[in-house]
Design a protein that fits this description.
By secondary structure, the chain is of the alpha+beta class. Helix content is about 45%, strand content about 20%.
Length: about 625
């Protein structure tokens, strides 16, 4: 490995610098005028990667980074894997402002069981020691998860939780024994063999083998019953019932494997990556992270950087498998690096089935829910509404926003959506959909006119509340259509905003038209006002698409055959039965249709023409 820093000129000459850069794999550090590290990156070919920063179109944040560069230092490595390991070490050490920053330096806690005490306790341990006379169980995603597990085991198996010094000097049982949370081994109320059996059962449960424990306890209960020891049988019965309730809470009953599952959820102004810890097929819990995305990386690059930094930039235990919600940008490289660090093969994948797919979906649900909770935070919403007030120069923050969008498939089953936000976020009870009828297929302007007209005529009749701001998705044409409707219906006091996607259709590059197409509003990608507009626009889009799909599917299921003259319930039933469904009927030729009982050649021709125009 060799280090070759470039000279630091007064004004960085990228063309001159690139002439001398190596084609080898390595790591590069971008510095500002004060020699502060702005960004650390890795490359399979340093020259090609660095050249990309100074050629072609860049997003706004990358342009800001390049504008501050006064020097670039490179470190050549022997392989891309070595470059990845070095990159993560440097990111952790230097914490550059343009890299994603994983602010999670805490170690994961464990449960420890000593081998040196005749009556061991289940102990909480923050760090795992290399030399220890006992077993470590975990790691767990949080201290709360450990304490909940310990509480369950003490309740079910009555394991002691006192310090060894307290245990050695007890002369009578403590309160834990009185409330049936301890079997009082300190005063010999339980034998060593029986206590060790309970400890082993607790450990098996913590390792995800509670079903095996239940089987052993069931057998012991039956033996106690046959021996007429009904008190012991009742105690074992209670343990079994508690274990059954515990097993009901497990996510996957018979799954195996150790895995960490990473899921990324992203919305305007928010990003969350949830990590699910799975050990012995048992879900131990989840931890949520909200890293900074310094360069507006795409989803695949972002989750790849996060996973790399999660393990390689910190001392985390690496499981057998790493599952991600999205494919990694450099999956093979990350897998190689993690395998090298772990000293064994580690599988990294986003393509999973069965119980692993369930883990993946659960992680994504966790990420989406946590992000939604963060975005719905009252202070966050207040900041967004206040930012919009400032951007539009309003006297007070708007109390009600409505956004309209149109959805269809090549003009089929057109649906318009209306979603509503107030100071507390989405007001779903006020959401509305409009099935658009009587307009030319694909005429979004006419569809928008019909939806707005129907909406505001209802408002004139006293149905609903007038919005302070009306947002239409679609740009100039849709904004002009909204203006015409507002003018025709004499609606006053409503501010119009049109949202047009940029040429790249990327979030953050939208053009906002205020009232007229001649007045635009430019907001920074980090603006809370822009995030609010993007949020309501995306919600309107989602609501419109859902309604369109429901309407389209319903039409395709029912109207295609019902509307054909001469095709009654009996013939429809025969057609669907013969071809196995509507899709089969659509694919059938005239001759195929004529083979159906009750369908002659003339009727077959009529059906074929009706289905195919």
């Amino acid at each position: 490995m060799s280090d070759s820093p470039s000279d630091s000129p007064a004004s960085f000459d990228a063309k001159h610098f690139l002439k001398s850069v190596s084609e080898s794999p390595g790591v590069y550090r971008m510095l500002d005028a004060q020699a502060n590290v702005l960004y650390v990156g890795k490359a399979k070919r340093l020259k090609a990667r660095l050249a990309s920063y100074f050629r072609g179109a860049l997003n706004t944040k990358t342009q800001a980074l390049v504008a501050r560069i006064q020097d670039v230092q490179v470190t050549i490595t022997r392989s891309e894997t070595e470059a990845l390991l070095l990159e993560q070490t440097l990111i952790k050490e230097l914490r550059p402002p343009y890299n994603i920053l994983l602010r999670d330096d805490k170690s994961y806690p464990y449960v420890f069981v000593t081998d040196r005490h005749p009556y061991p306790a289940l102990e909480f341990k923050r760090a795992r020691q290399k030399r220890a006379d006992g077993r470590y169980l975990g790691p767990y995603p949080s201290a709360t998860a450990v304490r909940e597990s310990l509480s369950l085991m003490q309740k079910i198996f009555r394991i002691r939780n006192c310090e060894d010094s307290v245990f050695a000097h007890r002369q009578r049982p403590c309160l834990q024994y009185q409330i049936k949370r301890c079997s009082a081994p300190c005063v010999d109320f339980i034998g060593q063999a029986d206590y060790q059996r309970d400890i082993e059962h607790a450990v098996m449960c913590l390792e995800g083998r509670s079903e095996q424990v239940t089987g052993q306890l069931t057998e012991a209960m039956e033996q106690a019953s046959r021996a007429l020891d009904f008190e012991e049988a009742a105690r074992l019965r209670d343990q079994i019932q508690q274990l059954r309730r515990l097993q009901e809470k497990q996510f996957v009953d018979n799954a195996e494997g150790d895995a960490d599952v990473f899921a990324l959820a992203q919305q305007p102004g928010g990003l969350c990556i949830s990590v699910l810890a799975i050990r012995q097929g048992r879900m131990l819990g989840a931890r949520h992270h909200q890293p900074q995305n310094g360069l507006d990386l795409g989803t695949e690059e972002l989750i790849s950087e996060f996973v790399s930094q999660f393990y390689l930039g910190q001392s985390k235990e690496i499981p057998q498998e790493v599952i991600t919600s999205h494919p990694l940008a450099d999956s093979e490289l990350v897998q190689s690096a993690l395998s090298e660090r772990a000293g064994r093969r580690v599988r990294v994948t986003a393509q999973v089935r069965g119980h692993r797919a369930q883990w993946q979906r659960l992680a994504l649900t966790n990420a989406e829910q946590h992000l939604a909770t963060q975005l719905a935070n009252r202070s966050q919403l207040s900041r967004r509404f206040e930012s919009l007030r400032e951007a539009l120069s309003l006297e007070s923050p708007p109390a009600r926003l409505e956004c309209f969008d149109i959805s269809h498939s090549h003009g089929e089953a057109t649906v318009a959506s209306c979603v509503v936000f107030d100071g507390d976020g989405p007001v779903k009870s006020d959401y509305r959909r409009f099935n658009i009828e009587g307009v030319a297929a694909g005429d979004d302007y006419a569809a928008m006119r019909q939806a707005l007209t129907r909406r505001f005529k209802r408002l004139q009749k006293g149905e609903g509340k007038l919005p302070d701001i009306l947002i239409v998705d679609g740009g100039k044409g849709q904004l002009n259509m909204a203006r015409e409707v507002i003018a025709e219906l004499d609606v006053i006091g409503v501010t119009l905003i049109g949202v047009a996607k940029g040429t790249t259709r990327k979030a953050g590059l939208e053009t906002l038209f205020i009232e007229t197409v001649d007045r635009t509003l430019d907001l920074d990608t980090s603006s809370p006002a822009l995030h609010l507009i993007q949020h309501i626009r995306d919600e309107a889009h989602r609501f419109a698409i859902t309604g369109h799909r429901q309407r389209r599917d319903k039409q395709r299921r029912t109207s295609s055959l019902q509307d054909i003259p001469g095709v009654g319930p009996k013939r429809r039933r025969e057609l669907l039965r013969f071809f196995g469904g509507l899709q089969g009927v659509r694919k059938a030729t005239r001759d195929d249709l004529a083979r159906v009982p009750g369908i002659n050649e003339q009727m077959a021709t009529t059906i074929h023409q009706a289905l195919h125009g």
